[in-house]
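hiii so um. not sure if this is the right channel but i have a protein structure encoded as tokens and i wanna go backwards to a sequence. like what aa goes where. can anyone help
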């Protein structure tokens, strides 16, 4: 494949409808994770002062934006979706260069974003309250939803387009204004989001983009007195810190965090069918998804069949630059993520697990952050590779003597985001649905979410109302109850 290098994009903050550098004029660069010699963009390393300016712009815009009809606010989202659809190949190309995932996955993320934004635009006509009977004569009771104010939206690098829009779109429809801080390694997509909203004619200050570190910019947003809600997706450690800071100001948070998602295979005769569902769910985005399946729990008699099917499926992956049409597994997003994955492979070997496939970095001749899809078997339930989130292409296999034991192993985790179960036994299906400790449950299919369905988890995986779907408004609006006496 011949890779054509392009000039780096000059990224700026977008504050009050204007593109501006950081107040200190400091910048930093981002390399292509598939080819570290190629610089994708140069971006501002912003300050607390810049964050304050963005919040002030959002607060000023809130005065008029919150008074606009929700239906009219929704029209801006429809416009955004139309413009994104007209530029989707260009956007997917940038996404792949910046994040590393194969172009087909990037295009899938773009299409999913379009679907979710259109659904959310329709929510403008569904911001409903209730009419309730009163215990008293001549009193009418009703509830209404009102916008919170300025929302800080802090997004991750693994899905740098769809995840921000899961925050920005429902916030805007509900009448809030937004200060958006993308992950530091994927600010190119944040820049593109703001650019597309500018093209859609969004009024100045309604959406503001601020680029910088979590330490300088993120913390300032969380602690700013004019910020009335924080929506964050990322690691549980960072989310916990945000939760602690926000609690001191008694503001609402919506946190979507880590996962160590399991798939149980038990009394399911078509092992190959199950593996065909599990492997893509494990290795899409090179395993860098909060909903990735990272554990398989199987009854002992099916262990060998499962391992053989996994090995065959995994070794069929083609590792390479995501812009190469042959590639089915792109690089990890950064050197840090590559080193973390390498570290966990060594931990697994020391813990006595059996390495079935992969286990090492892949040299593609570009010094990119490539790592082979990796399978461990004979993994102990209390081992680190079975308990800790790796966020890389590592899938572990554990065995159980009974379905109840499999369910216990599945639930023996700090996380509770997603879980899958492959079984033809109806009683096992019911037991799984009722007792598994996860927010999103999949029976006989992989961990795929849909564009109109609530997305969230339990335990250390999430706090606050689920995003997407009908539950998003529970975070992005406040409820008022009106007692009206005639």
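sure thing!! here u go:
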């Amino acid at each position: 494949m011949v890779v054509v290098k392009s000039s780096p994009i000059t990224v700026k903050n977008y504050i009050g409808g204007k593109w501006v550098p950081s107040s200190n004029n400091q910048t930093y660069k981002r390399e292509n994770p598939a080819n570290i010699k190629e610089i994708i963009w140069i971006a501002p390393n912003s300050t607390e002062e810049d964050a304050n300016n963005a919040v002030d712009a959002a607060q000023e815009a809130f005065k008029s934006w919150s008074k606009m009809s929700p239906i009219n606010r929704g029209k801006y989202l429809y416009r955004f979706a139309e413009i994104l659809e007209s530029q989707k190949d260009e956007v997917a190309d940038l996404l792949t260069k910046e994040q590393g995932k194969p172009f087909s996955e990037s295009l899938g993320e773009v299409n999913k974003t379009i679907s979710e934004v259109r659904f959310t635009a329709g929510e403008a006509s569904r911001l409903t309250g209730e009419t309730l009977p009163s215990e008293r004569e001549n009193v009418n009771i009703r509830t209404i939803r009102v916008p919170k104010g300025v929302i800080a939206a802090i997004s991750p690098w693994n899905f740098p387009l769809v995840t921000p829009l899961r925050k920005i779109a429902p916030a805007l429809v509900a009448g809030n204004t937004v200060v958006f801080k993308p992950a530091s390694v994927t600010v190119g997509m944040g820049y593109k989001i703001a650019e597309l909203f500018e093209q859609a004619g969004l009024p100045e200050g309604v959406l503001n983009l601020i680029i910088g570190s979590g330490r300088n910019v993120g913390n300032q947003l969380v602690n700013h007195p004019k910020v009335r809600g924080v929506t964050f997706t990322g690691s549980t450690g960072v989310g916990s810190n945000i939760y602690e800071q926000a609690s001191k100001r008694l503001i609402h948070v919506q946190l979507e965090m880590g996962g160590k998602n399991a798939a149980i295979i038990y009394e399911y005769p078509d092992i190959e069918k199950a593996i065909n569902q599990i492997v893509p769910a494990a290795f899409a985005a090179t395993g860098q998804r909060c909903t990735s399946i990272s554990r398989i729990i199987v009854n002992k008699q099916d262990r060998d069949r499962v391992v053989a099917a996994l090995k065959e499926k995994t070794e069929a992956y083609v590792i390479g630059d995501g812009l190469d049409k042959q590639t089915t597994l792109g690089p990890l997003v950064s050197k840090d993520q590559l080193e973390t994955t390498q570290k966990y492979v060594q931990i697994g070997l020391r813990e006595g697990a059996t390495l079935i496939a992969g286990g090492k970095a892949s040299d593609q001749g570009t010094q990119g952050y490539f790592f082979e899809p990796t399978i461990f078997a004979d993994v102990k339930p209390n081992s680190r590779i079975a308990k800790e989130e790796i966020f890389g292409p590592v899938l572990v296999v554990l065995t159980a003597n009974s379905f109840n034991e499999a369910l216990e192993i599945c639930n023996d985790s700090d996380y509770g985001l997603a879980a899958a179960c492959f079984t033809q036994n109806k009683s096992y299906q019911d037991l799984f649905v009722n007792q598994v400790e996860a927010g999103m449950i999949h029976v006989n299919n992989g961990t795929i979410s849909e564009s109109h369905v609530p997305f969230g988890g339990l335990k250390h995986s999430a706090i606050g109302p689920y995003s997407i779907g009908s539950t998003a408004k529970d975070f992005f609006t406040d409820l008022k109850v009106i007692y009206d006496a005639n």
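oh and The longest helix spans residues 103-122.
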